[in-house]
């Protein structure tokens, strides 16, 4: 019994002294986006290149090209929510990237 109690005391002491680690979920897709979301750092949908668009979470080469194709065929984006009219971009994708884009 003494060994059990002393073992528990040692474990408790170690737990108290151990630094607290605040782990954030590692979302590999969003890990590369440590930038803030203020207006100066957002990508303008009406002038963005393929290279800029593929830096957005979940946007690869084909979606970036689809965004540019839509822009060329329909005209400039009037609002970010208009992205859902681009083939391959739905509400879920919009929610992922809306903080990283803007329309000027």
Automatic annotation (TrEMBL):
InterPro entries the record matches: Competence_ComEA_HhH, Endo/Exo/Phosphatase_dom_1, Hlx-hairpin-Hlx_DNA-bd_motif, RuvA_2-like
Keyword Signal: yes
Biological processes annotated in GO: DNA repair; protein secretion by the type II secretion system
Name of this protein: Competence protein
Keyword terms: Signal
A single Gene Ontology CC term: type II protein secretion system complex
Signal peptide start-end: 1-23
Domain of life: Bacteria
GO molecular function, one term: DNA binding
A Pfam family annotated for this UniProt entry: HHH_3
Record domain Helix-hairpin-helix DNA-binding motif class: where: 51-70, 81-100
């Amino acid at each position: 019994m003494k060994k059990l109690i002393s073992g528990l005391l040692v474990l408790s002491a170690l737990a108290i002294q151990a630094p607290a680690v605040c782990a954030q979920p590692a979302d590999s897709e969003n890990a590369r986006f440590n930038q803030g979301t203020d207006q100066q750092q957002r990508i303008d949908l009406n002038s963005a290149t393929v290279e800029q668009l593929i830096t957005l979470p979940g946007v690869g080469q084909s979606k970036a090209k689809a965004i540019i194709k839509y822009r060329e065929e329909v005209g400039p984006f009037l609002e970010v929510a208009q992205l859902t009219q681009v083939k391959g971009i739905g509400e879920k994708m919009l929610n992922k990237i809306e903080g990283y884009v803007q329309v000027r």
